[in-house]
Amino acid sequence: MSTVSADLVIVANRLPVDRVEQPDGTMGWRTSPGGLVTAIEPVMRANDGTWIGWPGGTDEDLEPFEADGMKLVPMSMTQAEIEGHYEGFSNATLWPLYHDLVAKPEFHREWWDSYVSVNRRFAEKAAELASEGATVWVHDYQMQLVPLMLRELRPDLRIGFYLHIPFPPAELFQQLPWRRQLLEGLLGADMIGFQLPGGAQNFVRLVRQRVGHKTHRDLVYLPDGRTVRAAAFPISIDAAGFEAMARSEPVAARAAEIREALGNPRKVFLGIDRLDYTKGIYARLRAFSELIADGHLDVEDAVFVQVAVPSREQVEQYRILRDDIDRLVGRVNGDLGRIGRPAISYLHSSYPREEMAALYRAADVMVVTPYRDGMNLVAKEYVACRLEDTGALVLSEFAGAANELRQAWLVNPYDINGMKSALLDAYSADDRETRRRMKAMRRTVAQNDVAAWADAFMSELAEVPGSHGKAVRP
Ligand code: G6P
């Protein structure tokens, strides 16, 4: 397979497929679940794109290959790079800093050095593969230095960057010893996309204050005559795809089976998250369990199904969180459960998308309560799967999705009593009320799907004034 001269190159920390061991012991590939892959697949196909990324744990060198018709270029990482770039600077410095300091970020110079060198390798690979005047689309917080490094190597390229997580207020970002390098790294792009207008505004303000460039609204004017645009492009899901999956016979049957296995309670509450301290899992389970302890809910009537997808397990904060939640679930079920009736049905595992769709179909109240979240696609997936306009969504005000899903029961996840009343309201809301809300949210999600997101980003990237490179079809 030839990977030379791609007109579109995607650069992301991860490839859209994970390397997995198959039952016969050989290694194979499995499409990673998640929004990024479905989001970018259509643009990749239309433009014969090439995707550069890390295939997961291994540090062996793998050849470029094709999967589901996508050209993939695996980038290996050494153990030291995994510890410095991935677990360290990306997930123990930037992740907590960009999520409102929900955990305390750590600043270590060796981590930064590793972040710089991994970004450089990815930039060099993109420079090698991109054709003359190609478009390169760089993704997320693990790769913020790639735009400038790439521009220095290949001034002919058109470069877009998209940040999938929140961009913090200046007061927080300022703590970073390498704040200026990160801002300048991003400014190597022609356009920088954020989830929300607030993130774009935070960025422009920081550039004005810290780097001293002139700005006007969403534009930054660089001394070399280039213009960089910073704007919001709220990401979404393949709404029609999810809806079709939810409608399918096997998924409908599985949803019924799940309710049956739970003992057919009156109402099923559901949480699905990566096991991450930004997601507010602990507080939400506490709120639910207090409702049972107070006698507002009964385990005969209600159960909380919490799926926690294992994530970043080598990072200390994630291990602590897992222990805390294990202990909480054990205590709640020990204190409040009855035989065959746990208060919380807790699953620490990842599942295929069909199983998620069945869970969404089976759940009466979906509970999404992050302390801070760029968007949160689970909220949108739930809405897409509610074919009959039934079901209630309890949603944190601090998830990007709250900007669009205004008809959810919105909560402040720091306010446990507020969450308790929202859970109870959602539980006891009448049919007319839930339908009215769900119907409106379903319309929003159907109209603003992931194809619309990718189209908007690509066509606006092609129009940034002063941009180099030729346009790529959205
Ligand atoms: C978030 C980030 C992604 C990341 C994903 C999974 O959604 O925005 O960049 O890939 O989490 O995390 P992981 O560390 O497993 O890649």
UniProtKB/TrEMBL annotation:
GO terms for cellular component: cytosol. GO terms for biological process: trehalose biosynthetic process. Gene3D superfamilies: Glycogen Phosphorylase B. GO terms for molecular function: alpha,alpha-trehalose-phosphate synthase (UDP-forming) activity; trehalose-phosphatase activity. It comes from the Bacteria. SUPFAM superfamilies: UDP-Glycosyltransferase/glycogen phosphorylase. Belongs to the glycosyltransferase 20 family. This is Trehalose-6-phosphate synthase.
